[in-house]
Structure formats: C-alpha cells, structure tokens
User: Which sequence fits this backbone?
C-alpha cells in the first residue's frame, strides 16, 4: 500500500539526553563539591566559569603589563634610576623596546639592562644641560635624533 | 657662601659632561674594539630582540616562536626577520635607534607548523535577563624556529 503521510501515533522522544548533559559535565569534572556531579548545579558553575575566563582574557593583558612595569622599576632602582625616568629617557633616545622585552632583559641579561640604564642616565643629564644651559653649551650626543632610510 | 634654602637652585646639581673631543675619541675606540671582536668571532651565543607580527620577541638561535596569526609562507620556508631592535652577546650589545641596519644583523627562521589554537570559549551572560551567548573561537597559529643570528663587522 502507498503511505503518503507519516504515521501520526509515533511520538518523538529525546534519546541522547545523557550525552547532552555529559557535554556540560565534562567541563565541571575538576570542580569542588556536588557541582562536579549534578547537572543542575554544574550548568550554573560552568556558565560562570566560561564568563570569568572570557573576562580574564582581557584583564590578563593589564595584569601582565603592570607586572612588567613593577619589574622594570625594581631593576632600574638597582641602577639608581626610577621607572618613569628610565622609560622617558629611553623613549627620547629613540630606543623602542616594549615593557615585556625590557622585563625579560632585566631578568636574563643584566649587563644589557645596565647599559640601557646608563644610556637613560646620560640622556637625562643631556636633557638637564639643554634645559638649564639655555643654548650656550654644545648639544648632547645622545640627544641627536637619528633619521634612517631603510 | 653659607648654605641656606635659597643659596643654591632647588634642582639637583648636574655634573658636567665629558669633553666632546675626548668623548668622540673614546667612542671611536670602543667601536673599533667591538668591530674587531665581531670580525674575530669572539662571541658566544647571540640574542636578538626582533619586532615581528606586531610583537617584540627576545630570541636566540634554536628557539621556537608561536604567533597567533597566519603567515603567507609554506611549512619549511626559510624566512629572514628584518626589524631587529637589539643584538647582544656576553661582552657587547648593539642597541638600535630604533632599528639596526640590515647589513649588520641577519636573523633566519623556518616555518615549522601552521595549526589552529585549542577551542577557546567566549561566553556572555546577563543574569535575570535570559541572555547568554556562547561562541567557540579557534585562532590560526604559526610556529617558527629561529635557526641563526649572524652579525657582520660593519660598525662605523
């Protein structure tokens, strides 16, 4: 016989409820308490965990930059300079190293960091002389702006 | 003159800079010495600070770098990283203002791997407003291995 319409006495049943719950529970397995086993509690905790991780990704950049600044400040204090003095004089001497690399150099390459601190100190003194001497003394060597043609 | 609160200016006393002629002689001597050291090859492992993929990396030979983007080069291609900001060895450092010349440093790397990152989950949720959005993000990643860093004695 030809059947033109689907049988209407068959109801569709959800058969993969177990696996749908497992998809959520797998992210909660390392949590503490009943929220690593019970689905209702786990759903809420997993949702909060995802939202926190999303927001933390934006905050991580801020946290790491603050950490680098603290480390660079501490390292420059060992050489007798404060952080704002160090960074401003490096920028004025056209050295464009970012804070991440400066922090790494301060940890792993102390001699290089010492030379950068000396460069900043020298540029600072030339800046003072230029400001206080009012054009009578010759211009400083390290204050010259270098223009390259690559 | 007796030392009172107004006998000297409030800013710290600036020491005089050394004589420019003597300084120039000293600088030329240092440059010649470093040039001699480079041409004689008396340096051990070199490290460099390279600007690549809008980030700065402190790099040595034989180390791996992973960037969060696509590189238009096939796996196994040798790449030369220009834009070197700093090169150093144990006894000397060459600081670029801001970059070092291409005839001075050469940093070579090979593209090893081009994959996607692990699936990161982006979720937004407002409580009591029935609003939640979940998105799975996979970023393309490239892995480079820095083969060599070479310097040439062309300081002046």
Assistant:
């Amino acid at each position: 016989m030809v059947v033109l319409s689907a049988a209407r006495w068959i109801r569709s049943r959800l058969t993969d409820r177990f696996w749908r719950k497992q998809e959520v529970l797998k992210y909660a397995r390392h949590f503490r308490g009943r929220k690593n086993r019970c689905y209702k509690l786990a759903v809420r905790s997993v949702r909060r965990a995802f939202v926190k991780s999303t927001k933390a990704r934006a905050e991580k950049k801020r946290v790491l930059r603050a950490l680098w600044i603290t480390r660079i400040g501490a390292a420059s204090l060992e050489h007798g300079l404060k952080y704002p003095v160090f960074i401003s004089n490096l920028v004025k001497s056209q050295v464009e190293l970012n804070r991440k690399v400066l922090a790494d150099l301060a940890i792993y390459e102390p001699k290089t960091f010492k030379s950068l601190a000396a460069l900043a100190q020298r540029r600072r003194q030339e800046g003072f002389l230029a400001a206080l001497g009012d054009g009578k003394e010759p211009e400083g060597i390290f204050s010259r702006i270098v223009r390259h043609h690559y | 003159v007796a030392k009172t609160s107004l006998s000297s200016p409030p800013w710290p006393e600036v020491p005089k800079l050394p004589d420019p002629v003597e300084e120039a002689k000293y600088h030329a001597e240092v440059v010649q010495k470093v040039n001699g050291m480079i041409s004689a090859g008396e340096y051990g492992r070199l490290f460099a600070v390279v600007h690549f993929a809008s980030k700065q990396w402190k790099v040595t030979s034989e180390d791996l770098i992973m960037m969060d983007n696509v590189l238009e080069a096939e796996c196994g291609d040798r790449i030369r990283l220009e834009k070197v900001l700093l090169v150093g060895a144990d006894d000397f450092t060459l600081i670029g203002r801001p970059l070092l010349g291409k005839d001075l440093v050469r940093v070579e790397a090979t593209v090893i791997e081009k994959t996607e990152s692990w699936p990161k989950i982006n979720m937004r949720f407002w409580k009591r407003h029935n609003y939640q959005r979940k998105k799975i993000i996979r970023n393309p990643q490239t892995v480079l291995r820095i083969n060599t860093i070479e310097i040439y004695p062309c300081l002046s």
